[in-house]
């Protein structure tokens, strides 16, 4: 896959970055563009179900088990999640926080939580 192809496919929001990272790690690949189709990347229904379960936990959202069948790209999935969020802006804010703690150690996270 050429780098030029990714130029227009790079994540544009924190939510898309979190989704891209989750898909890449779940599929065992290096990079996922926002228009890449989950199933064309080798995704199977079992992995799709695991991803939806993980997203439910991460974002505390009620997401249908078949979500990736209906929204098989990061762009479509992120749009769905934003359209169905409980409170406007909450999904993107959660993604921003998840990205922030992603590179932190447990101790750094605990320290940050204690200081709030």
Quick synopsis:
The chain contains 7 helices and no strands. The protein has helices at residues 3-7, 14-27, 45-59, 67-70, 74-83, 90-102, 106-114. Helix 2 crosses helix 5 (74-83) and helix 2 packs across helix 6.
The fraction of residues assigned to DSSP E strands is: under 5%
- As for the number of domains, it is 1
DSSP E strands, number: 0
What's the pLDDT, averaged over the residues? 90
Q: Would you tell me which CATH topology applies?
A: Non-ribosomal Peptide Synthetase Peptidyl Carrier Protein, Chain A
Shape call: globular
- Low-confidence residue ranges: 1-7
Give me the Rg, rounded. 15 Å
CATH superfamily: ACP-like
Q: What structural class is derived from the secondary structure elements?
A: mainly alpha
Write up what this structure looks like.
With 116 residues, the protein is mostly helical. The protein has one domain (3-114): Non-ribosomal Peptide Synthetase Peptidyl Carrier Protein, Chain A. 60% of the residues lie in helices and 0% in strands. The protein is built from seven helices and no strands. It has helices spanning 3-7, 14-27, 45-59, 67-70, 74-83, 90-102, 106-114. Helix 2 crosses helix 6. The chain is globular, with a radius of gyration of 15 Å. The N and C termini lie far apart (44 Å).
């Amino acid at each position: 896959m050429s780098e030029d192809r990714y130029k227009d496919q790079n994540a544009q929001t924190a939510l898309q970055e979190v989704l891209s990272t989750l898909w890449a790690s779940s599929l065992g690949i290096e990079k996922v563009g926002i228009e890449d189709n989950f199933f064309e990347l080798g995704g199977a229904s079992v992995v799709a179900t695991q991803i939806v379960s993980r997203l439910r936990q991460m974002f505390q959202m009620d997401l249908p088990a078949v979500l990736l069948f209906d929204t098989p790209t990061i762009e479509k999935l992120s749009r769905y999640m934003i359209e169905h969020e409980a409170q406007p802006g909450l999904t993107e804010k959660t993604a921003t926080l998840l990205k922030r703690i992603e590179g932190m150690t447990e101790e750094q996270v605990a320290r940050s939580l204690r200081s709030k």
